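Hi P.,

Sorry for the delay on this. The queue was packed all week, but I finally got your sequence through. Input first:
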Amino acid sequence: MCGADNGLDLPELRPLPAEPATAGGRDGLALRDPLLLAEPCFVPRELLPILVRFDGTHAPAAVAAAASRELRQRVPVAAVDALVRDLDARLLLVTPRFRAARDDALAHFLATGVRAASHAGSPGYPADPAALRRELAAVLASAPPVPVHAASSALCGLVAPHIDLARGRTGYAAAYARLRAAAPADLYVIFGTGHDGPSAPITGLPIDWQTPLGTAVTDRTFVAAVHAAIGPAAPENLLLHRGEHSLEFQVLWLQYVHECAGWPPPRVAGFLCGALPSADGDPSAEPWLQQTVQALRGAAGARRVAWIAGADLAHLGPLFGDDAAVDADLLQRLDARDRARLQRLAQGEPGPFHCAVEHGGNPDRVCSAPAIALCALLAGGRAELLHYGQAAASDGSQVVSFCAAAFASTSTR
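Then the structure:
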């Protein structure tokens, strides 16, 4: 039997993304580990009544009894024990074995001193530096001219896409042409969507960033000061940085803009965003968020900071669980809803923007309200919408919307 000495007496499955899958002619679920500790795992459908009871409160005997009643056939306790041990060996349960592997992986990650480029080679992002420079140059050259009045204003905030560089080409062009037209910032603080659900509102990475264009230096003092004020980062949240793309794409663009403008290399601080909890969907009035904003402002001091959100908007279509295919009518209605929400930013209302996204449980699956709201709160003022785009698949399976927006000011922040 499983015992308390190895943490398997009350098996608890880790919170893992799961998708329907088929393997060997059997239906089930494919489990993916966002911490990159475990290999993908297929669980046959017949094991799901057992798996759902691995919640940390049921012993294997109780799981076997409950599953037997549901399936109307005997499930041996020994079979449940065997499954528990197998999942533990795969690092899929919350046990001492998993915690040791997590801590070892985190220690190695931080000891390298650099977060490697995990998405180089993705669409629009060649891994070869020369090819990459040519691609980014072509994207930036496609941007409309930046108005004179905008170029004369200091840029204190920017919303840019985090969709792949190929589909988000027009949004990246608009965002980073605007940044190119402004004076360089002393520090770029980037908020990126944590797609795999970080447990904290923000988690800063205390090491540098590597892309095919070189290494972007992280302001470790800034990141440390923020976490000294809001509390230490959880190991799981730090490990999520390894595979997340929302920050990497912004670091890459900052490197390229600084390089082609002849500016000194950018200094950055990247934070993955989880949810911004609030009583009514508007986190801006919550004391904890006000303290977080103050921690970020305090760490910045008198430096000129550009606050950046690596952010996409809606995710609709059968690929994301909807019944209806994406068609022209849906795209038109989504356009109107997205623009209505973005108008809140244009009015200088980041809290109501976040509230509008969350209204009704976020039916459009806007993934970046926390990153955008934080950027807007810190930048202050009204957003200028530079671009709105929709990346729709030709087969109607999906659409992802995105935007570029700028917050300009004559004051430093």
